[in-house]
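in:
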């Protein structure tokens, strides 16, 4: 329950967030709700540290009573135990390094249909940037500056090309415009799905034009037959080392579905008569149209796997280091470069590095 609390805190929701609107409560005031969300986000790092400290103390107490057995309240992933916040964050960092994905700043402001500036759109901008990068819509690699700066730093230090701490790269101008356009469409589609289930959230300030969105909004779009239902999204929480994975109900399938014709007996649908209005004999079978999703290839799986970074109060897209990997492949005289991880690759890497994670499955 403590880690569920962390998830709710990270997403800016309380257990009472879906309660009916009341004029006498804090939820009735959109401004107060936003201030409440901001306060919870500021406490995010403290909450994470507190949960790990409590978890570790529980483990120490249980070890005294039950040698070599894990505590039921311990922080565990499928391959082992996470005992400290430092270990958890380090494990996530190692996983990100192996996946070759790095953060890029996509911004927080967008422009709506009335040409008005809307704030707190970093979540949708991050989703849009990650998706557009995956389908090859970006003419310029936003991560190129990382490689060039690292290369220059290595040359200045005697030729040793090592990873260095750099200022977060930003989206180039044309790529930013594409991202903003798609981000607005995603905001409309996802928030419509949210409000379909929780119409009161618009009035209470949980959903709005400039209200911060959170990753659990994806839950309401996972079951969709739209393109969103074909996505998988992994959100890496930098503060805790935790990863939220969301898998759409049609992930791994081709979008849109294909039309499939099937045959059915007329005798079952017309009482066995099988004759038209003039008494003429019809065919013994009729055609019925169905829609079927075909299994997609590995390239499509990679394109439909989105990766985001969460730092308290802000989202950023995690994009593959295309320039770096292409130069590396060229130096090894390799032709094929698979820079973007699929969901299966992400999950296998999280398991390998013992990263604490949870999968929300739209197919359940």
């Amino acid at each position: 329950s403590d880690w569920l609390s962390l998830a709710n805190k990270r997403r800016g929701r309380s257990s009472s967030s879906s309660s009916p609107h009341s004029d006498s409560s804090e939820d009735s005031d959109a401004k107060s709700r936003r201030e409440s969300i901001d306060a919870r986000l500021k406490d995010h790092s403290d909450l994470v540290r507190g949960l790990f400290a409590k978890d570790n103390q529980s483990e120490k107490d249980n070890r005294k009573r039950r040698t070599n057995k894990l505590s039921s309240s311990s922080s565990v992933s499928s391959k082992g135990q996470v005992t400290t916040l430092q270990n958890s964050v380090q494990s996530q960092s190692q996983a990100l390094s192996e996946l070759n994905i790095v953060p890029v700043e996509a911004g927080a402001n967008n422009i709506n249909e009335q040409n008005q500036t809307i704030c707190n759109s970093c979540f949708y901008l991050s989703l849009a940037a990650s998706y557009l990068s995956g389908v090859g819509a970006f003419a310029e690699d936003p991560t190129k500056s990382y490689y060039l700066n690292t290369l220059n730093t290595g040359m200045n230090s005697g030729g040793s090309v090592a990873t260095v701490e750099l200022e977060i790269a930003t989206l180039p101008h044309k790529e930013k415009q594409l991202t903003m356009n798609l981000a607005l469409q995603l905001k409309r589609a996802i928030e419509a799905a949210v409000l379909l289930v929780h119409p009161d959230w618009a009035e209470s300030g949980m959903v709005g034009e400039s209200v911060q969105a959170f990753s659990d909004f994806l839950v309401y779009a996972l079951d969709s037959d739209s393109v969103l239902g074909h996505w998988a999204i992994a959100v890496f929480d930098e503060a805790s080392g935790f990863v939220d994975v969301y898998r759409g109900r049609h992930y791994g399938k081709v979008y849109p579905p294909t039309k499939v014709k099937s045959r059915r007996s007329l005798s079952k649908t017309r009482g066995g008569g099988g004759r038209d209005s003039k008494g003429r004999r019809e065919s013994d079978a009729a055609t019925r149209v169905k829609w079927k999703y075909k299994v997609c290839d590995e390239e499509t799986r990679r394109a439909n796997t989105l990766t985001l970074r969460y730092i308290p109060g802000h989202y950023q897209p995690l994009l593959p280091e295309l320039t770096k990997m292409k130069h590396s492949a060229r130096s090894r005289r390799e032709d094929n470069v698979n820079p973007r991880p699929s969901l299966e690759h992400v999950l296998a890497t999280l398991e390998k590095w013992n990263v604490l994670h949870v999968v929300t499955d739209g197919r359940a």
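note: The longest strand covers residues 258-265.
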